[in-house]
Each structure stands twice: as C-alpha cells, then as structure tokens.
Design a protein that fits this description.
Helices cover 35% and strands 13% of the residues. The chain has a single domain (30-249), classed as Domain of unknown function DUF4159 (Rossmann fold, 3-Layer(aba) Sandwich), CATH 3.40.50. It is an alpha/beta fold. Residues 35-231 form the DUF4159 domain. It holds the Pfam family DUF4159.
C-alpha cells in the first residue's frame, strides 16, 4: 500500500472515531409507572421518601418499569389520566376537596384509575381517618368501604399474603370501595408509607411495631401486590393460575 493511500485510510478512520455515537434510546416516560401523590389542604406528604422507595422496590422485584420519583398532583388539574395509580396520604385531619376536585377524581376512578389511601397518623375515628372516610363517602356514595376478604386476588397478585404490614398495625385488614366488582379505592390505616420510608444514607426512617422487620417486608410485599393489581386488576383470578397458587400455599 502506498504511503498516500495509508494516510487517507488513517484519516478516514480517525474521523469515524470522532463522530458522535448514536445514543441509547431513552425509555419513554409513558412506559414507566409513576405513582401520583394527591395533594390536599393538610399534611399531604408525611413520608416524603416512601413512594420513591416503593417504586425502586417494584423495579427490583418485578418487571414493572418505574419512574425515579412519584408525581405530586391536584385532583382537579390536567394530567390526572396519565397516572393510573394514585396515592392519598396524610397525618392529621384535612379540609374537604372541592366539588370539581371530587368530580375529576370520581371520573378518573370510573375510567379505570386506582387510589390507595394510607393513614400515616395511626388514627381510628379521628384525625386523618375521619377526613378520609368523609371524602371517600362523598367520592363514591354508592360504594361504601368494605373489608377486603382474605381470599381476594389482591393478596395473590404477586406475593401470597395472609396478613398486613405497615409502620403500625391499627387494623388487621384493608378496606375498599368497588366499582363494577373492581377495587377502585383501597384504604390502609397502618401507615404503609412509614414502613417504606428510607433515608438518603440507607437507614429506615421509622421502626415497625409490633412486628419489626418482618412487618416492614410485608408492607413492601403488599405495596408490590397493590401496584400489580392497579395495573392488571384480577388477571390472577383466572383458573389457569389455580394449581400453581395451591402448590405454593401447601
């Protein structure tokens, strides 16, 4: 090869190396699960790190692609339809939602949306509990809160669960409001967010009582099941899953 030809090839090769490489395609935001945290007039974000950690756990434990952060959202603002999984938490009483906010949230649930309500203050009959029950009764007046049966598909949507988790164990059951047989609203009084919350240095922010770390793990497993149910509803009730589920229970 002549020296001139060699130098031309060398120049072309160097130029090719200098060209910017095509970037990896970013995962579209629409393909990621971002939990929408509903704002209200009280302490609406009592566990600021909880949903971030839950979304991280979801990504590690399942095939769900999650956003790095939850999305704060007002019930009456645009964009609610982009968030199939909503989360309403609080510490203490909060003022009523406006009628337009209730109407927007009701419409969201009627079109397939899901709402997890989580009491952070351990209240039962007062505080957040009283405000949440008032709002849920106004939100879906034809669908009263009912205990979720242990046999419900929620408890086998990913993990097989037979007890509750959370920072506290105020109630050994969950309550729900149904729309066309589907759990549209799920209510926990056990402060799930308090069990999920983890600080920047990796420390758990709150102790779980009375069950300790096993109770925290159950809270995460319940959170995973809730997310799977919010996205897939009752697919695990199909009879094809029954033999496998019975083998795991035995």
């Amino acid at each position: 090869m002549r020296r001139r030809d060699f130098l031309e090839l060398l120049t072309l090769g160097t130029a090719a190396l200098a060209l910017p490489r095509p970037a990896r395609a970013a995962v579209p935001a629409a393909s990621q699960l971002a939990i929408g945290q509903l704002e209200h007039g009280g302490r609406w974000n009592p566990r600021p790190t909880a949903l971030r950690r839950l979304q991280w756990e979801l990504a590690q434990r399942t095939s769900i692609e999650t956003a790095p952060e939850a999305v704060p959202v007002r019930a009456g603002r645009p964009g609610l339809h982009r968030l199939p999984f909503l989360y309403l938490a609080g510490d203490g009483a909060f003022p009523p939602f406006t009628e337009p906010e209730r109407a927007a949230l009701r419409r969201h649930l009627q079109h397939g949306g899901f709402l997890l309500v989580d009491s952070a203050d351990g209240s039962d009959g007062g505080g957040f509990d009283a405000s949440a029950r008032r709002e849920l009764a106004a939100l879906l007046p034809a669908s009263p809160l009912l205990r979720v049966a242990r046999e419900h598909v929620l408890y086998k949507s990913f993990y097989l669960l037979d007890h509750q988790g959370g920072r506290l164990l105020v109630k050994p059951w969950l309550e729900a409001q149904l729309l066309d047989g589907r759990l549209a609203v799920l209510y926990s009084q056990n402060d799930l967010g308090g069990a999920w919350a983890r600080g920047a240095l990796g420390e758990w922010e709150y102790a779980c009582t009375p069950g300790g770390e096993a109770q925290r793990e159950t809270a995460f497993r319940l959170g995973v099941n809730v997310a799977m149910y919010a996205l897939c509803t009752d697919y695990k009730d199909d009879a094809v899953h029954l033999p496998f589920i019975l083998r795991r229970r035995s």
